[in-house]
Each structure stands twice: as structure tokens, then as C-alpha cells.
Design a protein that fits this description.
mainly alpha, two-stranded antiparallel ribbon, binds 2-acetamido-2-deoxy-beta-D-glucopyranose
Length: 588
């Protein structure tokens, strides 16, 4: 694989033969984009002179993309902007004869995991296909390109052997420390046509197909009467062709390898990290994206066949959107597919997928969805899921609402979906009982103890909270897991359910920020700009709570909320066999 610097050089050398495609080299910024200090988070936006993007939305988006640079593994490019990172784990993949040294570390520790990576790349690419102008205007096209390529290249390496996909690197170790001493060699887990992971084949295919659309420059319709824009500097037809061809191969593996099964059946040793529940959603989404990337209508038919045969589970009426659960994204994507490939299949009916989408969207925005509630402070709380990384399903639901809103069947619905999204985004940015801004480094009220071995500077696995007392590096752009169902947040490094950022906790904010950047000067500033009251850190045992919050909890307990939570916990334990979702990311 090429580093960014040599990719630019190669493109220049190859330019004459590729001239007709106007390939590709996003200009390297004359100086690297770096996050502003958190103190500037209380200063209202100016609009930059070259574009009308609100400078605070540029900060949110730019910092989110900076986080992905922090998470990079392998050989880092020359003049890498994160000056405290080093080359790392250069032997990854050697044991299976492939180069898996690149890519991204998943979260606070050092594993690499395909399911959340593929979802992250899909979500960022999908956002770029709708709101690419926002990346461009915020000066982030270069970092959009480098983030996507770093993920896509790794998926290409992991799928480079015939009928094979590497899905996990690393293990459940207790290593806590910097990037140069990570124990090696590391285990590689692989699915094949003989020992398949139906979901993960399709997830990888979806990411590659969405990436192909970005590099073809084929934006998606934002509404029935307008198209998105992909930054033209990303256009690279040769790369897009390679991504699209591999996506087709992987979807064929997903469709044809038997038995069709979730991937942890093939690689049970990784079940502790990311157990998957189902593969139908991945098959539908993968078919839809491969249809758009390849232009082959056979995939439209496959997507709709899968959708029809999954009734009555489709359209879903409740549930979450995340790396594992993609059900709520299927109908909104098929509605867009109907706009992109009209007539490809007689069942590809825009208004059917519009009304199917709205079954879920209406229940979500009106707070009438089964197994879903709001915390007292207003955070959407999904029973059985939100106990770990609560902001993740909430922000994904906000992203989904922004993505679907312009396709709504009425202006009233469109506005309701947007205001639901706004409520979750505002909560994340400080409109909550603790005045906490859950993006690290963006505001004085941001958390200071994200669970991150890289950022912490500590090496003592038995004392990660206090060694060192202050985290060594600010993990700019990271979205932490989030508060509990009582809106409490402890800001402790070892509380990974609350404090651990991951590739997939940041991805929805990339999309959200690109949406607001694409709105230019008409976007309101992020809520945090007006947050001046001090941040309240929850204390164990409840002593950090206000009298009002204590009263609320007492009343809540009287109403039986405690009992419900206990029940939900046991339901979860049954569903996941006790090992899974709540502990989806281990301490180290
Ligand atoms: C592996 O790929 C990376 C790019 O991801 C590259 O920098 C590195 O040199 C490659 N390593 C080997 C041994 O080829
Ligand atoms: C990068 O290497 C330097 C020099 O060895 C070291 O001091 C630093 O801690 C390393 N960074 C990380 C994140 O481990
Ligand atoms: C959107 O793009 C499609 C495909 O390129 C094109 O046919 C259509 O006219 C465009 N629509 C608008 C409103 O520009």
C-alpha cells in the first residue's frame, strides 16, 4: 500500500494516462489542520471567508477526523500531524502471509476488529455521499480521503487472499501502555468460504462499495429533488473500480458460502469483543450498496428479495442502529436506491420504502418506540443496549434522522425528525443535567479521562485511573461512551462502558458535523458554545447529585424503574449469553 505522500507522487506520475478521469490527489494542506484548544469552545463561530461554514462545526468535524489519525496503526506517513504517535505492530498479518499492519486500532486498547471498522467506514462514506460539500467547505477533504483510504486499504488487505477475510487482530490481553511495546506477534482470526461469516463478508462489502461510490464521485440524492456533492478532489476511478470489484466478490461470498451464519460461529475466540446478532440486515445493505457501485440490477433484486423474505421483521418498528444492528437504515437506503436506479426492479418503489422508513422514524421521534425511553435529561435510551456507550445508539439515531428527513412524506414529519436529531445532538453537546460536553477537547466542560491507552501515557494496568494523574494527551475529537440512564457520568478511565471512545462512537458525529458544515452560515452553532455553567462530575454513591436529581431518582425508584432496569439486565444476559453487548469492549 502507498503512504499518502507517495500516493500523491504516484498520481502525479500517472496523470497523463489517467487524465480523462481527472484523478485524484487531494492537495496536501500547506500546514496540517490541528484542533483548537478547548477554551475556544465558548466562543461563537465566525464564518471563514472562503466558505460560510461555521468555525465551530469545522472544529467538531476536523477534531473527529483527527481522532482517526490518533487511532492509526502501522507505518505512519511522513510529517504525520499527531506528533506523539509512532509506527506500531508492523508484524500484524505476517503469520497468515498478509500485511495487516495498517488500519486503525478499534478503541481504547489495540485490537483491530472488522465489524466496527467496516461500519465506521460505511457511515463516514455514506455521510460524504450526502454532505460531501461540508467536508470540502470545512477544509477536511484531505482528511476525509486519508481516513477512508486507511480503512479501505486495510479491508482490501484483509480480503486479498482468495475467499478469505481477516476479521480480527489481537486478543483479550492485559497490555496497557504505549504504541511501541505492544506485545507481538498478534493473533489473526479469519473467515473463509468453508468457515463463513455471512455478516462480516457483507459488512466489508458494504464499506468497499460505499467507498467506491465516493471515489467514483457518485453522490447520493439528498432529497427527491437534490443531489449531494462529493469533493471532486477525491475522484479516483481506478481505485473505485478495485473497491467495487472486491465488494462484489465479498457479497458473493456472503450469499453463497454455507452455512450462512454470524461470524463468531466461525471464530468463537473473538465473541468476547463484538458478538453479532444477525446477518440479514448486512445482506440487504450490502446488496443495495453493491447495486449502486456496480450498476448491476441483479443486486437490486437480491436486496428486495432479502427484505421481503425477512418480513415481519422488516420494516423494523424498534431496535437500534449500530455496528451490529443496521435494520433501521435499510428502508431509508432502499428509498434512495429507488431514486438512483428507478425501474431496476418492479418492487423498487420509492413510496413503499418511504412509508416503511417512517414506521420506525415516527415511533422514534414521538418517543413511542418499544423498549425505548428518554432519560430525565432527554437522552434516547434503548433498553438492553444503552447501558454501555449510551451515546452511540442515540447519535446513530440522530444521524439516521438527518439522513432520512429530506425524504419524508410531509414537511411536518421532516421537521419532527430533524428536531429529534437536534435534541440528541444538543444533549451530547452539553444540554444535559451535568453540563457535560461529551466530545473530548472541544470545550472546557469536555471529559478529561477517556479510556485510551494511547492517550493516557500510563503503563500500569492495575492503576489506569491514577497513573498518570492527568492523561498525557488530549484525545481531541473522541466521543466517549456516555452517561448512564440517570444522566450520571463519572469521567473515570477504567469505566469503559462510559468513558471509552471507539471508531464507531465517533463515526456518527463525523456525519452529523458534515451535515451542519454543509448547511453553511444557516447552521446554528453547536449547543456547547453557550454552555458556561461548570461541568458537574458525578460521584460514586450519589453525593455529586443535585437535590433535584436525587428527588428524581427516588421517585423513579418508587415508580419501579429499578425493577425494570433489573429485568432489562436479565433479559440482556439471556440474549447475549452473559458475555456480550454490555461488555462489548473490555478494559484492555
Ligand atoms: C504494509 O503496508 C503498509 C501500508 O499499510 C506499508 O506502509 C508497509 O510498508 C507494508 N509493510 C510491508 C512489510 O510490506
Ligand atoms: C512514541 O515514542 C516515543 C519515543 O520512544 C515515546 O516517548 C512515546 O511514549 C511513544 N508514544 C506512544 C503513544 O506510546
Ligand atoms: C441527480 O443525479 C442524477 C444522476 O447523476 C441525475 O440524473 C439527476 O438529474 C440529478 N438531479 C438533480 C436534481 O440534479
Amino acid at each position: 500500500m502507498l503512504t499518502i505522500g507517495s500516493a500523491v507522487a504516484a498520481a502525479v506520475i500517472l496523470l497523463p494516462s489517467l487524465a480523462e478521469f481527472a484523478t485524484a490527489a487531494v492537495p496536501t494542506p500547506s500546514s496540517p489542520w490541528l484542533p483548537a484548544p478547548s477554551a475556544s469552545g465558548t466562543v461563537a463561530s465566525s464564518s471563514s471567508s472562503s466558505s460560510q461554514v461555521k468555525s465551530q462545526w469545522e472544529q467538531v468535524l476536523g477534531s473527529n477526523l483527527y481522532y482517526y489519525d490518533v487511532q492509526r496503526s502501522g507505518v505512519l506517513p511522513e510529517d504525520f500531524r499527531v506528533d506523539w504517535r509512532n509506527n506500531s505492530v508492523l508484524t500484524d498479518g505476517e503469520s497468515v502471509g498478509r500485511n495487516l499492519s495498517g488500519g486503525f486500532f478499534d478503541a481504547g486498547n489495540f485490537v483491530k476488529a472488522m465489524p466496527p471498522l467496516a461500519w465506521t467506514i460505511t457511515q463516514i462514506a455514506y455521510s460524504a455521499l450526502l454532505w460531501g460539500q461540508g467536508f470540502e467547505d470545512a477544509g477536511q477533504a484531505y482528511y476525509l480521503d486519508s481516513t477512508l483510504r486507511n480503512g479501505l486499504d486495510w479491508i482490501m488487505s484483509a480480503s486479498s487472499a482468495n475467499e478469505t477475510l481477516d476479521v480480527f487482530v489481537g486478543n483479550q490481553s492485559v497490555y496497557w501502555g504505549g504504541d511501541v511495546d505492544i506485545p507481538q506477534p498478534r493473533d489473526v482470526y479469519t473467515v473463509t468460504s468453508q468457515n463463513p461469516g455471512t455478516d462480516v463478508f457483507a459488512e466489508a462489502a458494504t464499506a468497499l462499495a460505499a467507498g467506491a461510490l465516493v471515489y467514483y464521485g457518485r453522490a447520493l440524492p439528498t432529497s427527491q429533488s437534490a443531489n449531494g456533492t462529493v469533493p471532486s478532489s477525491l475522484r479516483d476511478r481506478e481505485y473505485a473500480d478495485a473497491l467495487s470489484a472486491r465488494a462484489v466478490e465479498l457479497m458473493n461470498l456472503a450469499g453463497n458460502s454455507t452455512p450462512q451464519q454470524v461470524y463468531q460461529k466461525a471464530v468463537p475466540d473473538v465473541e468476547w469483543a463484538y458478538p453479532s446478532t444477525d446477518f440479514n440486515d448486512e445482506l440487504m445493505l450490502g446488496s443495495a450498496f453493491v447495486a449502486m457501485a456496480s450498476g448491476d440490477i441483479e443486486w437490486v433484486t437480491k436486496a428486495i428479495d432479502a427484505y421481503s423474505s425477512a418480513a415481519p421483521l422488516y420494516p423494523p418498528q424498534y431496535g437500534i442502529l449500530n455496528w451490529d444492528g443496521k435494520g433501521p437504515l435499510v428502508a431509508p437506503t432502499l428509498a434512495r436506491l429507488a431514486l438512483v436506479m428507478p425501474g431496476a426492479d418492479s418492487r423498487l418503489d420509492f413510496s413503499k420504502f418511504q412509508s416503511d422508513s417512517e414506521i420506525y422514524m415516527d415511533a422514534l421521534e414521538s418517543n413511542k418506540m418499544q423498549d425505548t425511553s428518554r432519560t430525565k435529561g432527554g437522552l434516547a435510551f434503548f433498553k438492553g443496549y444503552s447501558s454501555s456507550a449510551s451515546l452511540n445508539p442515540a447519535l446513530n439515531s440522530a444521524w439516521l434522522s438527518l439522513l432520512y428527513a429530506p425524504l419524508a412524506s410531509s414537511d411536518t414529519k421532516r421537521d419532527a425528525y430533524r428536531s429529534y436529531a437536534q435534541s440528541q445532538i444538543d444533549y451530547t453537546f452539553g444540554k444535559n443535567p451535568l453540563n457535560t460536553v461529551y466530545q473530548v477537547g472541544i470545550h472546557p466542560n469536555s471529559p478529561v479521562n477517556p479510556h485510551s491507552a494511547l492517550a493516557s501515557g500510563g503503563t500500569d494496568a492495575t492503576n489506569i485511573n491514577n497513573s498518570p494523574p492527568q492523561e498525557l494527551h488530549v484525545l481531541y475529537g473522541a466521543i466517549v461512551g456516555g452517561p448512564d440512564e440517570n444522566d450520571k457520568y463519572y469521567d473515570e478511565r477504567d469505566d469503559y462502558d462510559q468513558s471509552e471512545p471507539a471508531l464507531d462512537t465517533v463515526a456518527p458525529m463525523v456525519g452529523i458535523a458534515s451535515y451542519f458544515a454543509s448547511q453553511g452560515s444557516s447552521a446554528a452553532d453547536p449547543y456547547y458554545v453557550g454552555v458556561t455553567a461548570p461541568r458537574i462530575v458525578s460521584k460514586r454513591g450519589g453525593s455529586g447529585l443535585s437535590g433535584g436529581a436525587i428527588a428524581g431518582i427516588v421517585i423513579g425508584v418508587l415508580l419501579g424503574v429499578g425493577l425494570l432496569a433489573t429485568l432489562a439486565f436479565f433479559i440482556w444476559r439471556r440474549r447475549s449469553g452473559g458475555g456480550g453487548r454490555l461488555t462489548r469492549r473490555r478494559k484492555w
